[in-house]
Design brief:
11 helices; single chain; 3 domains; 19 strands; 6-stranded mixed β-sheet
């Protein structure tokens, strides 16, 4: 049995004002070439096909084109991720089923039939026990409602789902079957990319890798950093197909080729693919930028200019220095982030006045004290250290607070 595992395409993603479609096109072209060479029995996509739960029409068309190119080579199974809308997935699966059984988009686990199967070239079956993303509030859905899965901690509910899948594997096992687990979940011990949102990969959402049933391969999505799955199971996070944001800069993206047979361990080969423009952060004085930027053609650049004195028309001057094919995500001059103190009214605190205005704005827009607090703390931390990476700190806290409402 041969399997190609891909994940986390995030179709429709933008990085600031930069559309990531060209990068996705390059990555998917590479993936199509890979599956044409491997000729797998199944192509497994473990979630976050889209970047938003309600993708635009152009993004839907792009997804349909990409998936149809893959399905022309081998059957395709796509799990619903936390960025994907369940209703959108269910509707797309209905449309896909009209044209045959080459493409399936799985919105939810069916506890009555939790194992899906496809015939393999050697006459056996490739059986997939699949767990699409399970929101914290409702892991198991129908399983909870029917009492098949009991309440309790999130990890316990996921463990019960894997137990259901393991029992289904055992009931109908044939001599030529190869069993695979597939999920869009956070496994405890996985190494996070700096871009991951704590609300989706925090301790409350972590699951136990030991809960997996005995399988030849476990293919996971959700964590963007490609890596071996923690624990004893043979498996991997395929990772995102492109560098989604600067928290993933430097990571090599691609797919996973799996070769498995009954009675032996699977051979697992991560394959690096073209993934569009690399993301590069550059910190240097303006005079030194031309030579440094010349080494990064065709990149998306985040530029920090270290000159102590104000550089007039900074964005335009940097734009003139960009190498061919490169785009500038942002350009900042950190030395200007904290302007020199100016005369103010007696006893007035210029910093406090900014925070007061920010608090008033947040109160007007959101009306929630916890949002105001999280936003002002983010502002204060960013002002205290303009170069600090607040992704897993103040930014994650503000994101969690907003989404909790």
């Amino acid at each position: 049995m041969k399997l190609v595992h891909t994940s986390d395409w995030h179709i429709g993603a933008w990085l600031g004002a930069i559309d990531r479609r060209p990068d996705l096109e390059a990555a998917i072209d590479g993936l199509v070439d890979l599956v044409a060479e491997v000729r797998p029995d199944l192509i497994l996509h473990t979630g976050d096909l889209f970047d938003r739960s309600l993708p635009g029409g152009d993004d839907m068309r792009f997804a349909a084109d990409a998936l149809s190119r893959l399905a022309a080579v081998a059957p395709v199974l796509v799990l619903c991720g936390n960025h994907d809308g369940r209703q959108t997935f269910a509707a797309l699966n209905t449309f896909a089923s009209i044209g045959g059984d080459r493409l399936r988009l799985l919105a939810q686990i069916d506890i009555r039939q939790p194992v899906l199967s496809w015939p393999t070239a050697n006459g056996g079956r490739l059986r997939i026990g699949a767990v699409p993303y399970q929101p914290l509030a409702a892991a198991g859905f129908a399983a909870l409602a029917e009492g098949t899965v009991s309440g309790g901690a999130y990890a316990d509910r996921i463990r019960q789902l894997w137990a259901l899948i393991g029992a289904a594997f055992e009931r109908d096992r044939g001599p030529g079957d190869v069993d695979v687990a597939a999920a869009h979940l956070h496994v405890s011990g996985a190494v996070l990319a700096r871009s991951e949102k704590a609300v989706h990969v925090g301790d409350d959402a972590a699951t136990d890798p030991s809960a997996l049933p005995a399988v030849s391969y476990a293919g996971y999505g959700h964590i963007h950093k490609p890596q071996a799955l923690p624990g004893a199971a043979a498996g991997r996070y395929a990772g995102s197909i492109i560098q989604i944001d600067f928290g993933e800069a430097g990571e090599q993206k691609g797919a996973v080729v799996v070769d498995a047979a009954p009675g032996r361990a699977a051979r697992i080969e991560p394959v690096v693919l073209a993934s569009g423009r690399p993301l590069v952060s550059v910190t240097r004085a303006l005079a030194d930028l031309p030579e440094l930027l010349a080494g990064h053609p065709g990149s998306i650049l985040r530029i920090s200019v270290t000159d102590p004195d104000r550089v007039e028309q900074l964005a335009d001057r940097v734009a003139d220095l960009l190498p061919e094919g490169s785009s500038c995500h942002s350009v900042v001059q950190p030395s200007l982030a904290r302007p020199a103190a100016t005369a103010t009214a007696a006893g007035a605190d210029p910093e406090a006045s900014v925070l007061t205005l920010l608090s008033e704005y947040a109160t007007t827009v959101h009306g929630r004290a916890e949002v105001v607090t999280a936003l002002t703390e983010l502002w204060s931390e960013a002002l205290a250290d303009p170069d600090a990476d607040l992704t897993d700190g103040a930014v994650a806290e503000l994101t969690h607070t907003l989404e909790a409402g």
